[in-house]
């Protein structure tokens, strides 16, 4: 493989859930936020925002929502959100009624693109943080209770939470997780028609994942990758629906 400092940063990425009790200085924070702003943005709509959370009470509540106590200990904590609220206000200044059918930024295509933009910005920030010697973890767990999160952060109409990001100076050194063989994720020209052929290397990957978790959690054995997939596929997510909660924020995802 070809390599350079950027590639090494990306290849050595791992989730950090334990942070040193040290603040992140203003220069580093400004750098991370500026890097996030330089991520790709569909049609340059800049249709995302990030809430920087420093209030201990809000951090504690986010830790409750995510059911992960370490969230409250993160020196730098963000919640990235889809943000068409700002664009709605800008459009309104130009004579467009955001409540009318003329305003298309509330429909599913733009919702999805704004979500993509928010994720790209978050990933850029996370990568920059690792390059500065920091560590972090992406917080999908904050979506456990979307209405509570919306209420806690006072998110207005035409906004919607996407992911959280906790950053800080690492106080742990977890081993790198194995990644599945490239042949199982990268295909030439079309998706493979031979499902069994695509999974030919799955048993070896199952074994590597099983060994990784056995070494990391000797007191709590974890299933192989295939068993984890089977287990998660049966977990109920009916309480995590999107359409109704997005509709409450003004979006119309059926259009």
Describe the protein in words.
Pfam families: Nitroreductase. By secondary structure, the chain is an alpha+beta fold. The chain folds into two domains: 5-174, 3-Layer(aba) Sandwich (NADH Oxidase), CATH 3.40.109.10; 182-233, no CATH class. Helices cover 41% and strands 11% of the residues. Strands 1-2-4-3 form a four-stranded antiparallel β-sheet, with helices on both faces. Helix 2 runs antiparallel to helix 5 (108-131). The model has no long low-confidence stretch (mean pLDDT 92).
Structural topology:
Elements: H1 5-11, H2 26-37, E1 48-52, H3 56-66, E2 76-83, H4 85-93, H5 108-131, E3 135-139, H6 146-152, E4 159-168, H7 195-198, H8 202-216, H9 225-233, H10 243-248
Helix pairs in contact: 2-5
Mean pLDDT across all amino acids: 92
User: Architecture of the largest domain in CATH?
Assistant: 3-Layer(aba) Sandwich
Largest sheet: 4 strands, antiparallel
Q: Assign an overall shape.
A: globular
Instruction: State Rg.
Output: 20 Å
Q: How many β-strand stretches?
A: 4
β-strand amount: 5-15%
| The CATH C-level class name of the largest domain | Alpha Beta
Write out the strand line-up for the largest beta sheet, numbering strands in chain order: 1-2-4-3
- At CATH level 3, the topology of the largest domain is NADH Oxidase
Q: Cα distance, first to last residue? A: 44 Å
Based on helices, strands and strand pairing, what is the structural class?
alpha+beta
| Number of self-contained structural domains | 2
Give the CATH superfamily of the largest domain. Answer: NADH Oxidase
Low-pLDDT regions: none
State the order of secondary-structure elements, H for helix, E for strand. Answer: HHEHEHHEHEHHHH
Oligomer: single chain
Total helices: the number is 10
Family: Belongs to the flavin oxidoreductase frp family.
Keywords: Flavoprotein, FMN, NADP, Oxidoreductase
GO molecular function: oxidoreductase activity
Organism: Bifidobacterium breve DSM 20213 = JCM 1192
